[in-house]
Amino acid sequence: MEDVDPLGTRPTVVQIEDLTRWNLTALLETRENENNSEDFHPFPWRNDLNAKIILWCGDVTTLDVHAIVHSTNEKLNDKSIETETLYAKAGQELVDEIRNNVRICKTGEAKLTKGHKLLARYVLHTVGPRYNVKYITAAESALYSCYRNVMQLVRENSIKSVALYPIHSTKRSYPVNEGAHLAIRTIRRFLEKYGDDIETIIFCCNEESIDAYLKILPLYFPRNETEERIAVTELPLDIGNEDGEPVIPERQIRIMDKPTLAAMRKSSLEGFEETVDLNKEFATSTIVEVGRHPFAKMEENPDTHKKSHMYGKTTDEQREQDNKRRYERYLKRAKTEDLTDIAALKCLYRTGTDKFGRPVIVFVGKFFPVNTVDLEKAFLYLIRVLEPIVEKDYVVVYFHTQSTAENHPTMNYLKNAYCVLDEKYKKNLKAFYVVHPTWWSKLTTWYFTTFTASDLKNKVYNLKGVQYLYGTISPDQLDVPSFVINYDTEINGFRYYVPPEQEEATGL
């Protein structure tokens, strides 16, 4: 397709009229009555929105549009081919305007200047975040702010056509696929609200990003009914809120009555909750009183509540049905997709049974490469392994042995995965053994089982050695990696005594 061919020869000026709109890149199908109207489609097929989208590969400065986006650094002097080309074509006037009027642009902000000698009337400068696996949520929030602030300027200045170059850059270590998901869904949500204010949005790619956009764009802008149904099964766990903003439950804040008393009451946690943002460099906490004041209870969106009753269902019932449908979609994918690369990691497998006849699932933390593995496929593999056994009681053994920060998924990922899993996974889990825990793993477990999975709190057991498992799981029923045995022998000795009361404490 000429519009996305990275090797094609480009003219000096590229007119919008010469580019193919997204709605015309596939043969449209007629909607049929056989479509299941009960299915939930977060990004339904809308031909009117697709007609505003263009996917194109080339030099953004050659596009004859009202505005182009310039992804740069805080001082707007990024040493990249895109920045150098932009300044060369815009002339000294743009450099002078930036030096005199803009000067600096902070991460997540967007600043508008004239285009001067460019074909575009305006340039929208913005600074994408640096990506660090320790602060993923901060990077996601900053990147969302970039796109949101750019589109705000577009709307405020009555810009009808804009070319969006990817703000997330590999130069700042931001993964291409994750950045594309956030960018496209934010634009989708913007068009749903303000589509009448803009005529054309061009996703302008290069050789590095074009494949990701070709793969991900149909998930948020499906071009027909079939593509819409497929998209529902392939969307990531976090699809953002109604604006496309990443949902970060850990940052929800409720206000207590008479907050000045919080410090005096901090020593007692009864009747209180502690909200901790583990994704910040410095953890902060807010003590909030539960259920003591009407303002401490968050009311539902009245429109959502009204809508649920219009369809004869309470909000809880509707949420339960939505969760069930979502899990069924993941289950279908887990049964059909090729997950051999995840299986090859040998980080999750079924072993024997415990002394009560309950199947045992083993997870080896050290073998789980969070930074390189496809987390979506890892979640599908989890469903594939557990689905056959969760109809009845089962137990999980997690070897935390010698795992590092490179093996720990984010709290947000864990919460989303937990919320998607069917209720039987939580109800029938009878014990979760953490072998060789660390201070950090204990803190994480406490936080997760306090604020997200309180029903699992009494099912988690921290064990300092493998032999503490033998009170409920016979050695011949447990497949333990050799490095775990070696480490256990090193810190606990070849054999060590397990008190009877400790054995009793590890079983249900």
TrEMBL record:
Disordered, as annotated region: 298-323
Family that this chain belongs to: Belongs to the GDAP2 family.
InterPro entries associated with the record: CRAL-TRIO_dom, CRAL-TRIO_dom_sf, Macro_dom, Macro_dom-like, Macro_GDAP2
PANTHER family: GANGLIOSIDE INDUCED DIFFERENTIATION ASSOCIATED PROTEIN 2-RELATED (PTHR11106), GANGLIOSIDE-INDUCED DIFFERENTIATION-ASSOCIATED PROTEIN 2 (PTHR11106:SF72)
Boundaries of every CRAL-TRIO domain copy: 338-492
Regions of compositional bias (Basic and acidic residues) in chain numbering: 314-323
Family annotation (SMART domains): A1pp, SEC14
SUPFAM superfamilies, A to Z: CRAL/TRIO domain, Macro domain-like
One Pfam family named in its UniProt record: Macro
Species annotation: Mytilus coruscus
Family matches, as CDD domains: Macro_GDAP2-like (cd02905), SEC14 (cd00170)
Domain Macro as annotated: residue spans: 40-221
Protein name per the record: Ganglioside-induced differentiation-associated-protein 2,Ganglioside-induced differentiation-associated protein 2,Protein GDAP2 homolog
